[in-house]
Amino acid sequence: MKTKLFVVYGGKSVEHDISLKTARTVLSAVDESKFELHPIYIARDGRWCGPDAQGLASGEAAERLVAEPAHDSEAASIGDILLRKLALPGKKVVLPLIHGSNGEDGTLQGLLEMLNVPYVGNGVLAAALTLDKAMSKLALAQAGIRQVEHRTLRREQWLADERGCVAWLEDTIGYPCYVKPSSLGSSIGISRCENRGELAAGIAEALRYDAKLVVERELPGREIQVAVMGNEEPIVSLPGEFIHDNRFFDFASKYSDPRLRMSIPAEIGEALIGQVRALALQAYRTLGCEGLARVDFFLDRDGLLYLNEINALPGFTSASMYPVMWEKTDGTTYAKLIERLIDYAFARHEVRQSLSYERLAPC
User: For residues 325 and 331, what is the distance between their CA atoms, to the nearest angstrom?
Assistant: First the structure.
Protein backbone atom coordinates (compact mmCIF):
# COMPACT_ATOMS: atom_id res chain seq x y z
CA MET A 1 0.00 0.00 0.00
CA LYS A 2 1.28 3.49 -0.85
CA THR A 3 2.25 5.90 1.91
CA LYS A 4 -0.34 8.64 2.28
CA LEU A 5 1.39 12.01 1.95
CA PHE A 6 -0.57 14.96 3.35
CA VAL A 7 0.84 18.16 1.85
CA VAL A 8 -0.22 21.24 3.86
CA TYR A 9 0.21 24.60 2.13
CA GLY A 10 -1.16 28.15 1.84
CA GLY A 11 -1.95 29.60 5.25
CA LYS A 12 -2.60 32.99 6.86
CA SER A 13 1.01 34.10 6.52
CA VAL A 14 2.04 36.98 4.26
CA GLU A 15 4.18 34.33 2.55
CA HIS A 16 1.02 32.56 1.31
CA ASP A 17 1.85 32.92 -2.39
CA ILE A 18 5.38 31.59 -1.86
CA SER A 19 3.87 28.55 -0.17
CA LEU A 20 1.71 27.96 -3.26
CA LYS A 21 4.80 28.00 -5.49
CA THR A 22 6.53 25.51 -3.23
CA ALA A 23 3.47 23.23 -3.12
CA ARG A 24 3.04 23.23 -6.89
CA THR A 25 6.62 22.11 -7.35
CA VAL A 26 6.49 19.43 -4.65
CA LEU A 27 3.17 17.98 -5.76
CA SER A 28 4.30 17.71 -9.37
CA ALA A 29 7.59 16.04 -8.35
CA VAL A 30 6.41 13.40 -5.87
CA ASP A 31 6.68 9.81 -7.10
CA GLU A 32 3.03 8.75 -7.22
CA SER A 33 4.02 5.10 -7.52
CA LYS A 34 5.17 5.38 -3.88
CA PHE A 35 2.91 8.06 -2.42
CA GLU A 36 -0.81 8.72 -2.41
CA LEU A 37 -1.18 12.51 -2.47
CA HIS A 38 -3.59 14.29 -0.14
CA PRO A 39 -3.24 18.08 -0.54
CA ILE A 40 -4.58 20.21 2.31
CA TYR A 41 -4.98 23.86 1.37
CA ILE A 42 -5.29 26.54 4.07
CA ALA A 43 -6.98 29.68 2.78
CA ARG A 44 -5.81 33.19 3.60
CA ASP A 45 -8.51 33.48 6.28
CA GLY A 46 -7.24 30.32 7.98
CA ARG A 47 -9.92 27.87 6.88
CA TRP A 48 -8.73 24.42 5.78
CA CYS A 49 -9.92 22.49 2.74
CA GLY A 50 -8.82 19.44 0.79
CA PRO A 51 -8.73 19.73 -3.02
CA ASP A 52 -8.76 16.59 -5.15
CA ALA A 53 -5.23 15.33 -5.81
CA GLN A 54 -6.09 13.93 -9.24
CA GLY A 55 -4.30 15.79 -12.00
CA LEU A 56 -2.13 17.94 -9.73
CA ALA A 57 0.99 17.02 -11.71
CA SER A 58 -0.68 18.01 -15.00
CA GLY A 59 -1.12 21.42 -16.57
CA GLU A 60 -4.18 22.11 -14.43
CA ALA A 61 -2.17 21.85 -11.21
CA ALA A 62 -2.21 25.60 -10.53
CA GLU A 63 -5.99 25.79 -10.69
CA ARG A 64 -6.58 22.65 -8.65
CA LEU A 65 -4.27 23.72 -5.85
CA VAL A 66 -6.65 26.38 -4.57
CA ALA A 67 -10.13 25.33 -3.49
CA GLU A 68 -12.86 27.29 -1.73
CA PRO A 69 -13.22 26.50 1.98
CA ALA A 70 -16.35 24.53 2.73
CA HIS A 71 -16.85 25.62 6.37
CA ASP A 72 -18.00 28.73 8.15
CA SER A 73 -15.21 28.76 10.72
CA GLU A 74 -11.51 27.99 10.90
CA ALA A 75 -11.96 25.55 13.79
CA ALA A 76 -14.71 23.59 12.04
CA SER A 77 -12.63 23.26 8.88
CA ILE A 78 -9.55 22.05 10.77
CA GLY A 79 -11.55 19.45 12.67
CA ASP A 80 -13.30 18.18 9.56
CA ILE A 81 -10.18 17.92 7.40
CA LEU A 82 -8.05 16.26 10.08
CA LEU A 83 -10.76 13.80 11.12
CA ARG A 84 -11.40 12.72 7.56
CA LYS A 85 -7.81 12.68 6.34
CA LEU A 86 -5.94 11.25 9.30
CA ALA A 87 -8.58 8.57 9.87
CA LEU A 88 -7.64 6.97 6.55
CA PRO A 89 -5.99 3.55 6.98
CA GLY A 90 -2.33 2.87 6.22
CA LYS A 91 1.03 4.54 6.65
CA LYS A 92 0.84 8.33 6.62
CA VAL A 93 3.08 11.39 6.93
CA VAL A 94 2.53 15.17 6.81
CA LEU A 95 4.66 17.53 4.72
CA PRO A 96 4.15 21.12 6.01
CA LEU A 97 4.90 23.68 3.28
CA ILE A 98 3.66 26.85 4.97
CA HIS A 99 6.32 29.54 5.11
CA GLY A 100 6.24 32.02 7.97
CA SER A 101 3.68 32.37 10.76
CA ASN A 102 1.16 29.64 11.60
CA GLY A 103 3.19 27.07 9.75
CA GLU A 104 6.91 27.51 10.20
CA ASP A 105 6.82 28.87 13.75
CA GLY A 106 6.01 25.74 15.75
CA THR A 107 2.23 26.17 15.88
CA LEU A 108 1.42 23.63 13.15
CA GLN A 109 4.15 21.35 14.48
CA GLY A 110 2.52 21.41 17.92
CA LEU A 111 -0.81 20.38 16.43
CA LEU A 112 0.83 17.50 14.56
CA GLU A 113 2.64 16.39 17.73
CA MET A 114 -0.67 16.23 19.60
CA LEU A 115 -2.14 14.20 16.74
CA ASN A 116 0.89 11.86 17.00
CA VAL A 117 1.47 11.83 13.25
CA PRO A 118 4.92 11.83 11.56
CA TYR A 119 5.77 15.11 9.84
CA VAL A 120 8.67 16.45 7.81
CA GLY A 121 10.94 19.13 9.18
CA ASN A 122 11.75 20.71 12.49
CA GLY A 123 9.95 20.15 15.78
CA VAL A 124 8.10 22.70 17.87
CA LEU A 125 11.04 24.34 19.65
CA ALA A 126 13.42 24.45 16.69
CA ALA A 127 10.70 25.81 14.40
CA ALA A 128 9.82 28.57 16.87
CA LEU A 129 13.46 29.48 17.54
CA THR A 130 14.58 29.60 13.91
CA LEU A 131 11.68 31.79 12.77
CA ASP A 132 12.21 34.25 15.64
CA LYS A 133 15.43 36.05 14.65
CA ALA A 134 15.81 37.76 18.02
CA MET A 135 15.58 34.53 20.01
CA SER A 136 17.74 32.51 17.64
CA LYS A 137 20.45 35.17 17.83
CA LEU A 138 20.46 34.88 21.62
CA ALA A 139 20.87 31.11 21.47
CA LEU A 140 23.57 31.29 18.79
CA ALA A 141 25.48 33.95 20.75
CA GLN A 142 25.41 31.68 23.81
CA ALA A 143 27.08 29.02 21.64
CA GLY A 144 29.83 31.48 20.68
CA ILE A 145 28.84 31.79 17.02
CA ARG A 146 29.89 35.11 15.49
CA GLN A 147 27.02 37.38 14.34
CA VAL A 148 26.61 40.91 13.04
CA GLU A 149 26.01 43.62 15.67
CA HIS A 150 22.26 43.96 16.25
CA ARG A 151 19.61 45.17 18.67
CA THR A 152 16.07 43.97 19.40
CA LEU A 153 13.33 46.62 19.40
CA ARG A 154 9.81 45.96 20.69
CA ARG A 155 6.64 47.75 19.65
CA GLU A 156 5.95 49.06 23.14
CA GLN A 157 9.43 50.62 23.33
CA TRP A 158 8.87 52.42 20.04
CA LEU A 159 5.41 53.70 20.97
CA ALA A 160 6.66 54.95 24.34
CA ASP A 161 9.70 56.86 23.06
CA GLU A 162 10.37 57.05 19.32
CA ARG A 163 13.12 59.66 19.62
CA GLY A 164 14.86 57.76 22.38
CA CYS A 165 14.79 54.55 20.36
CA VAL A 166 16.24 56.27 17.29
CA ALA A 167 19.03 57.82 19.39
CA TRP A 168 19.79 54.45 21.00
CA LEU A 169 19.98 52.67 17.63
CA GLU A 170 22.13 55.43 16.12
CA ASP A 171 24.57 55.18 19.03
CA THR A 172 24.80 51.38 19.09
CA ILE A 173 24.20 50.27 15.46
CA GLY A 174 24.63 53.33 13.24
CA TYR A 175 24.12 53.60 9.48
CA PRO A 176 23.61 51.93 7.14
CA CYS A 177 21.51 49.36 8.94
CA TYR A 178 18.68 46.94 8.28
CA VAL A 179 15.35 46.84 10.08
CA LYS A 180 13.69 43.41 10.06
CA PRO A 181 10.51 41.90 11.49
CA SER A 182 11.77 39.31 13.95
CA SER A 183 9.54 36.46 12.77
CA LEU A 184 9.19 36.64 9.01
CA GLY A 185 11.03 35.44 5.91
CA SER A 186 11.56 36.18 2.22
CA SER A 187 12.84 39.69 3.05
CA ILE A 188 9.24 40.90 3.57
CA GLY A 189 9.04 44.04 5.71
CA ILE A 190 12.82 44.60 5.68
CA SER A 191 14.28 48.06 5.00
CA ARG A 192 17.80 49.29 4.42
CA CYS A 193 18.28 52.61 6.22
CA GLU A 194 20.95 55.26 5.71
CA ASN A 195 19.61 58.07 7.89
CA ARG A 196 17.20 58.97 10.67
CA GLY A 197 14.19 59.44 8.40
CA GLU A 198 14.69 56.10 6.69
CA LEU A 199 15.19 54.40 10.05
CA ALA A 200 11.86 55.72 11.40
CA ALA A 201 10.09 54.74 8.19
CA GLY A 202 11.72 51.31 8.22
CA ILE A 203 10.61 50.69 11.79
CA ALA A 204 7.04 51.72 10.93
CA GLU A 205 7.05 49.36 7.95
CA ALA A 206 8.42 46.40 9.93
CA LEU A 207 5.88 46.96 12.72
CA ARG A 208 3.13 46.25 10.18
CA TYR A 209 4.25 42.61 10.27
CA ASP A 210 5.63 42.00 13.76
CA ALA A 211 5.63 43.52 17.23
CA LYS A 212 9.30 42.63 17.71
CA LEU A 213 12.05 43.85 15.35
CA VAL A 214 15.75 43.24 14.82
CA VAL A 215 17.91 46.20 13.77
CA GLU A 216 21.22 45.07 12.33
CA ARG A 217 24.39 46.83 11.21
CA GLU A 218 25.19 46.45 7.52
CA LEU A 219 28.17 44.21 6.83
CA PRO A 220 29.77 44.79 3.42
CA GLY A 221 30.62 41.48 1.80
CA ARG A 222 29.00 38.38 0.35
CA GLU A 223 26.12 36.10 1.37
CA ILE A 224 26.93 32.39 1.49
CA GLN A 225 24.30 29.69 2.02
CA VAL A 226 24.53 26.01 2.89
CA ALA A 227 21.93 23.22 3.20
CA VAL A 228 21.71 20.88 6.18
CA MET A 229 19.67 17.67 6.40
CA GLY A 230 19.17 14.97 9.01
CA ASN A 231 18.29 14.22 12.63
CA GLU A 232 20.89 12.84 15.06
CA GLU A 233 23.68 12.82 12.47
CA PRO A 234 22.95 15.68 10.05
CA ILE A 235 24.89 16.20 6.84
CA VAL A 236 25.89 19.45 5.13
CA SER A 237 25.93 20.36 1.45
CA LEU A 238 28.44 22.35 -0.51
CA PRO A 239 27.85 26.09 0.00
CA GLY A 240 26.17 28.24 -2.63
CA GLU A 241 25.86 31.91 -3.44
CA PHE A 242 23.44 34.06 -5.40
CA ILE A 243 25.24 36.36 -7.82
CA HIS A 244 23.49 39.72 -8.17
CA ASP A 245 24.18 43.46 -8.40
CA ASN A 246 21.61 44.60 -5.84
CA ARG A 247 22.80 46.47 -2.76
CA PHE A 248 19.81 45.07 -0.87
CA PHE A 249 18.72 41.52 -1.76
CA ASP A 250 15.01 42.21 -1.22
CA PHE A 251 11.84 40.28 -2.09
CA ALA A 252 11.75 41.48 -5.71
CA SER A 253 15.43 40.61 -6.19
CA LYS A 254 14.90 37.09 -4.84
CA TYR A 255 11.81 36.20 -6.84
CA SER A 256 11.69 38.29 -10.02
CA ASP A 257 15.18 39.48 -11.02
CA PRO A 258 16.03 37.75 -14.35
CA ARG A 259 19.74 38.50 -13.85
CA LEU A 260 19.93 36.46 -10.65
CA ARG A 261 22.08 33.33 -10.89
CA MET A 262 23.41 30.68 -8.54
CA SER A 263 27.02 29.75 -7.99
CA ILE A 264 27.35 26.24 -6.49
CA PRO A 265 29.78 25.65 -5.01
CA ALA A 266 30.40 29.23 -3.96
CA GLU A 267 33.68 30.59 -5.25
CA ILE A 268 35.58 30.43 -1.97
CA GLY A 269 38.63 28.42 -0.90
CA GLU A 270 38.52 24.86 0.42
CA ALA A 271 39.44 25.97 3.93
CA LEU A 272 36.55 28.45 3.99
CA ILE A 273 34.16 25.82 2.63
CA GLY A 274 35.14 23.64 5.56
CA GLN A 275 34.48 26.47 8.01
CA VAL A 276 31.06 27.19 6.51
CA ARG A 277 30.01 23.55 6.76
CA ALA A 278 31.29 23.16 10.32
CA LEU A 279 29.61 26.35 11.53
CA ALA A 280 26.35 25.39 9.83
CA LEU A 281 26.38 22.06 11.60
CA GLN A 282 27.09 23.75 14.95
CA ALA A 283 24.22 26.22 14.46
CA TYR A 284 21.83 23.46 13.34
CA ARG A 285 22.54 21.48 16.49
CA THR A 286 22.49 24.53 18.75
CA LEU A 287 18.90 25.31 17.76
CA GLY A 288 17.85 21.66 17.90
CA CYS A 289 17.02 21.40 14.22
CA GLU A 290 15.82 18.15 12.66
CA GLY A 291 14.91 17.22 9.11
CA LEU A 292 16.19 20.22 7.20
CA ALA A 293 17.35 23.82 7.33
CA ARG A 294 19.28 26.31 5.25
CA VAL A 295 21.99 28.25 7.09
CA ASP A 296 22.95 31.69 5.75
CA PHE A 297 26.24 33.47 6.38
CA PHE A 298 27.84 36.82 5.66
CA LEU A 299 31.44 36.72 4.48
CA ASP A 300 33.18 40.04 5.12
CA ARG A 301 36.07 41.55 3.17
CA ASP A 302 38.57 40.16 5.66
CA GLY A 303 37.38 36.59 5.12
CA LEU A 304 35.47 36.33 8.43
CA LEU A 305 32.16 34.46 8.58
CA TYR A 306 29.14 35.83 10.41
CA LEU A 307 26.00 33.74 10.79
CA ASN A 308 23.01 35.62 9.40
CA GLU A 309 20.07 33.29 10.04
CA ILE A 310 18.75 29.73 9.88
CA ASN A 311 15.73 29.05 7.70
CA ALA A 312 13.85 25.95 8.90
CA LEU A 313 11.65 25.79 5.79
CA PRO A 314 13.79 27.21 2.99
CA GLY A 315 12.53 27.95 -0.50
CA PHE A 316 11.74 24.61 -2.09
CA THR A 317 10.94 25.17 -5.73
CA SER A 318 13.07 23.41 -8.34
CA ALA A 319 15.01 26.68 -8.77
CA SER A 320 15.52 27.33 -5.05
CA MET A 321 18.98 27.17 -3.53
CA TYR A 322 18.27 24.37 -1.03
CA PRO A 323 17.39 21.52 -3.45
CA VAL A 324 19.93 22.66 -6.03
CA MET A 325 22.73 22.61 -3.45
CA TRP A 326 21.97 18.95 -2.71
CA GLU A 327 21.88 18.05 -6.39
CA LYS A 328 25.28 19.70 -6.89
CA THR A 329 26.67 18.07 -3.71
CA ASP A 330 25.73 14.41 -4.07
CA GLY A 331 23.43 14.13 -7.10
CA THR A 332 20.21 13.96 -5.08
CA THR A 333 17.30 14.78 -7.39
CA TYR A 334 14.35 16.87 -6.25
CA ALA A 335 12.05 13.84 -5.97
CA LYS A 336 14.68 11.84 -4.05
CA LEU A 337 15.25 14.78 -1.71
CA ILE A 338 11.58 14.75 -0.74
CA GLU A 339 11.81 11.01 -0.05
CA ARG A 340 14.91 11.45 2.12
CA LEU A 341 13.18 14.12 4.18
CA ILE A 342 10.16 11.85 4.61
CA ASP A 343 12.48 9.06 5.78
CA TYR A 344 13.88 11.42 8.42
CA ALA A 345 10.32 12.21 9.53
CA PHE A 346 9.51 8.54 10.07
CA ALA A 347 12.83 7.93 11.85
CA ARG A 348 12.23 10.80 14.31
CA HIS A 349 8.66 9.66 14.92
CA GLU A 350 9.87 6.13 15.68
CA VAL A 351 12.33 7.45 18.26
CA ARG A 352 9.64 9.51 19.94
CA GLN A 353 7.25 6.55 20.02
CA SER A 354 9.88 4.61 21.95
CA LEU A 355 9.87 7.18 24.77
CA SER A 356 7.73 6.52 27.83
CA TYR A 357 5.09 9.04 28.84
CA GLU A 358 3.51 6.88 31.50
CA ARG A 359 3.03 8.45 34.91
CA LEU A 360 5.61 7.40 37.46
CA ALA A 361 4.34 5.34 40.38
CA PRO A 362 3.87 7.41 43.55
CA CYS A 363 6.71 7.24 46.06
Answer: 9
